[in-house]
Records
---
Amino acid sequence: MLTLERFVYSFDKNSPPIAHAADGDIVRFITQDCFGNHIKTEADHEDNLDFTHTNPATGPLYIDGAETGDVLAVDILDIQVADQGVMMTLKGYGALWPTCEVRTKIIPIKDGYAHFNDVVWPIDPMIGVIGTAPDGEPVPSGYSFNGGGNMDSRLIKKGATVYFPVRVPGALLAMGDIHATMGDGEVCETGIEIPGEILVRVRIIRNFKLNWPVTETEDFWFVNTNGRTCDIAIRRGYEELQRLVMNAYGWDATDVAFYLSAQENCMGQTKTRYKDFIMQYLTAMDPNQVITTEQVARYVAGRLLQETVMVKKAVNVNMARLEKEGQIMRLTKGVYCRKVKTAFGYYTPDKETLFCKHLLRNENEVIGYETGLSELNRIGLISQMPKKRCIATNLHKKRIPKGMQIEIRKPPIMVNADNFRYLQILDVIRELDMAPVDTAKPVDVVRAVAQEFALETDQLILMARKYYGQKTLVRTIDIMLEGNYEAARG
């Protein structure tokens, strides 16, 4: 029998499979608990954890013959668990956190029972994380999505079959995060987290459309969805069930609506939190990178399948809370940077440097360039260090934070990656007369910079004619065509 032990932390179409299985094969998955087996005693707390490496999922397993548009059926044949599990409060999380303290509790498992203080109850092991790879961006295994993931459904246990959409060749099945028992909603954010072994059979159903995973129990079929709110998740479940029943029975939409209204059984559980998605985005960012609420909102909206405008307010509120908690630093309205905890306290990059980056780049898009005396100093035309750094930017209306030695200018035209070097050198040429140039041959310096960035002379002259004054145009022609600039200047 094939046994798998290696694991990943995301559902990713690019993850190399650790093994292959055929249609109908039985496979054993050896799993760690959601904390990666790092919590050994009740003295261990969340400070001992790296939350980018939680919820390990054993796999991925490549199922030979599974193709995009198929469905992968996973029969849960058995779940065996270790002799102890762990529960833990997580700061700021869970419906009852305001009434709780930081605590870790080890739960012994003996003869099929969980022993908690002076009470015991029978265990009912279930799989928290299980799914197939998406065809788009990777999804961390701590999150649910339309291919499965951290669904934390009590129904996914021995005897159930879970059906997953196949969106990439081989499906790339992974699973983990067993709970010995778990209450709906996990009010303290954990069930009895426990390592174990999962025995499954994998089967391929050809050419069958699924938009969400479906769980089959002895008596019912359940669609597993998620959403920004419980209402959205429930509606998505209704819509998928309606579609499936229409296809199975040939009924129209109205008759299926009648049937579901009489027969459906909704088990709502909202696991999605704005703060989770925001922290996921922030921790992936370089501390020396500017973060805007607009960027964060686009990311969160993408994860929740919502329009950006629908999540902006919640993102702004959560970013303000994170600043208050000391996890991020505000540069100006809507602009932040990460604070990184080190052994010597929090590292925070220079605010002024970061704000300048914000004026120069919007993610990977060029929106500004350095100009004025600071640019002349940078390229060696003047030796005097200016008091302020001067930047021409599309964000020229941006308010400069108090105390920063920065001057913002409006560029002649909107700045982009194709034109910013041309605008930069034309600004230099325009300012030569006014600047305290103290190099012997300024023309050679300007010409050398233009050559360094492979600027085309015709394009440079054309832009000078369209966007700059007559003097700048004449000087540009004189310099780039190797005329006597010093004589012209006199």
---
Amino acid sequence: MMKCDEEGATQNMMGAAVLVCTDGQWVYDSTATAAANKCDEEGATKTESMGMGDAFSMDMTYICKDGQWEMQMPDFGGMFGGDSTGGFPGGMNFGDSSFTMPGGGMGDFGGGNFGGGQMGGGQVAPAPGDGSISAHTILMIRLLGNEGFKKAFINRYCVLLSMNFSADRLLKQIDALQSQVQSEMNRDIEFWKFEANSFTSNLETIKSFAQTRQQTIMNEMKTYFNLGETAQVTLSSQGSGTIKVHGLALDQSSLAINFFKDVPVTVTAEPKSGGVFSGWSDGNTEATRTFVPGQVTTLTATFK
């Protein structure tokens, strides 16, 4: 149990659960919790932020149900993708890498979701609920009908899978989050009466998902968009500048990315303050250019 010093003191836990200091121990108080969670307007919603320092932050949604605020528990699988209904919001922050994805994260193609509406195997299926197709789905379908947008979408997603969603980066963030709660585990296990090995097992499941999800998405994009094989291209910058792929800036000076061979990639060499672009490693001097993956394996932008 969790020890406390001031008899009668209270503290609020996630979900507005109230603990009361009783005989030197923090004890859950259902009466105080019910009072703290009281609401008047049935169906009303509210949002509160919660987080773990700089490593992770998110918004939690509550709905007024039967006179009580009820927290809509996140689907922790939806953290990286899949059906995001009731899951994490699309805007999340992991350390220094902010990203927003339709549907909540590393989402699905071909049977998965885009922003609540489903797109399966190239066929539009009704979104859950009232049977209508969500506005998000309609918008995405129509945007993907534009060849330029589709190319940018595919290539930017390839970059994100090697950058924001790379296994190394995700594992570091998972380890950072795990280290923050490690010191509380024994107390939590005792308080909630669950097995310690369940935490370890769930942690390994999350890590496995983070390590394999990239290739799963590449396979789903290949199927959904009827794409060919992939080719790895290493994009690098030297000097005071960076490379953008269809407008998406790389956050490191050198990055190996798996692109699809049949989707041309447009890159832009963008100087930083005081820098001047001098050319590409293959002799091309145009700041914005397009190349075909497979025909190009390495490309370096040089800045003075």
---
Amino acid sequence: MLPPGLRAFWPGTNATVPAGWSRDTAFDNLFALQGDGATFTGPLDTADILHLHDADPHEHTGSRHRHRVTGAAATGGTPSNIVTSGVPTIAFPGVTLQHTHPRTFGAEAGITYTTGGFVTLTPEPAARPPSATVIVIRPDNTMQDIPNGAVAFADSPELPIGFAAYPTWHHKFLIGAATGDDAGDLIGSETHTHTSNPGHVHSALGHSHPAFPTAPGTKREVDPTLPAASYINQAHHSIALTTAPGGLSGDAFPDAGPASSLPEFVTLKVVRNTSGIATTPTSIVVPYVDDIATLGVPQGWVIMDGTGQSNVDCTSPQIRCTVTDTEIGDTGGQATHSHVIDAHFHAGIVSHFHGSTQINNGNQFIARPGFVPLARDDTHDHVWTISATAPGNTDPTSPGSSDEDARRAYRTVVFLKKIQIASIMPTAPLWRRRRKRRTGSPVLQKA
């Protein structure tokens, strides 16, 4: 007979739960996971129904871009000394240089989009491992044995008497069916992904462009009393674009790449009562929910901790079913897992523009026929016009995600194995031990 704290698995419908047994609704929607063995004080539920990850903080760099820069006309100073070929220095008072700079493009720069993240959500059961839904049943009294058709486990290739391997649940984890539902659904998958919801954006840091030389200026002499001069076109200014304000990149909705759905597990043989009667044979393994720390382990049972008469340590891993004898006791899965977020990019910030700073007014080069060009300083300013530019998309980035518990919502139990109780045979009655007295023929003696 079964202690009232033992449980079994029913693979059928609510309506067919055997007489003397009832559905234990505390296991609805939950897996069974072994608790703390000899210190077990009763079931403890986890509430991790939804499986969540946070994306790792990450940043993007905007596409490199540049701005168009145009210099308005400006009048330079008066050149004082020009060197002729083989002729001493000659002064040209009153000469001024008026010139403009045509359109050119500033130095390239990218925009850094600050670190940010998002939460990925995938409702159950998408993140569950390959599983079979079951109805966990409990005995209504201490007069019950495991009913015909119910399912339990074995920890050795030898089948418990009256039980047969149950291939329907091969390589499946067992989870309580949803409240009110029948058992028998096969759900879950070896791997799972996540979809980001909602999308996420990044703030753009302010950025500037490094100094760059302007386009060569178009120059002319403005003193009409002097003969025409030919001025060599040179880029004689250096311009830096000042910092432009930041903004926000556009939303992105990347998926999380696949990760294993398998929690840390140990493998037991899944067996079903096919005897036609209720029976609890030696070597059967079932979950137990009563307080072992107070009540102790029921007589005739041992904790499945891999010692003594238990062949497999079921401490902490979840149970994965098998019908392959060589897989009994195998372990696998992982305690936690993470994902790699799909490479993604964002639409860049809206059009923006910069102010300008004149770093160097540069050297102008002038020449007349027969003159050797001479470099000279000529301090003057221009009004620089900067075009607006949209930087375009950010570069692709593929961040990781937080490392989360690979176990799905569960209820703690202790798995017990039934063992053979040694007994002393009663002493045979005295009458069975009496020995027959020997009788023999009389000995004839000679006279």
---
Amino acid sequence: MSNQNIDSIMVCLSPSPSNIHVIRVASSMLKNKKDHFYALYISDKILHLRIFEDENNKMNLSLLDTKGALMIVSQFTLYGDSRHGRRPSFTEAELPKQASRLYEHVVRSCRIEGIKVETGNFQTHMQVALENDGPVTLLLDSEKLF
């Protein structure tokens, strides 16, 4: 190793074949806001979280293991904070331009891994039907507050 000053070192350990891409993207984002790292965290969780049943009916397989597909739809209202008063506050939600970039970054990160991803239209009114087939609902929080 050379004697040059190093501000930080990032090591990514994952079975992912595109690890080198993740390292390149992450290092280029060091100059940007921490939100971009949150996008990487969320896409990594989506891809690797073991939430699908294996042959023993245990939640032991990831989306990558099952070669599944995703539908990623932005939903601004999920960031509504209703802990105080009687009207939800959206002051902590990201501004639309930045939110769109982060949304697209998560979509791109999942597609790079070979996952088929369908998307909604960002910042538009949409009617999306969901059939929740399973015993659990999981929340992913990039700030790890819960």
